[in-house]
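Example record

One chain of 122 residues, shown exactly as stored in the release files.
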Amino acid sequence: MKKRLLVLMAVLAFTASAADITGNWKATLDMGGQSMERTFVFKQDGAKLTGETTSSMMGKSTITDGKVDGDTVTFTITANPGGQGDMKLTYKGKIVSATEIKFAVEGGMAGGQAIEWDAKKQ
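Predicted structure tokens for this chain:
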């Protein structure tokens, strides 16, 4: 009986660590009192993450190098804001719940400081 219980607990722990974030998400950002929005369409296959993201400032970008590892989400996008040249942005997120991810974005913006987005599943 103990062995079955241990196996069941191990299966549940593995399942809990393999979060699936597939779907549509809307993220918000407060920048100096101004609210900005970004949408994500995630497609997850095991640990591999693909999809696209859109914002009014950066337009549409393809998600590359995407990975979900436990409650951590990482990916990059390449944006070309205002036709000023390509900018690579690296996203690292923590899955807070089945409906919320908190992202920090680094690269090319805000003087090298990370920008934080709060994403909610739609």
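Notes: The mean pLDDT is 85.
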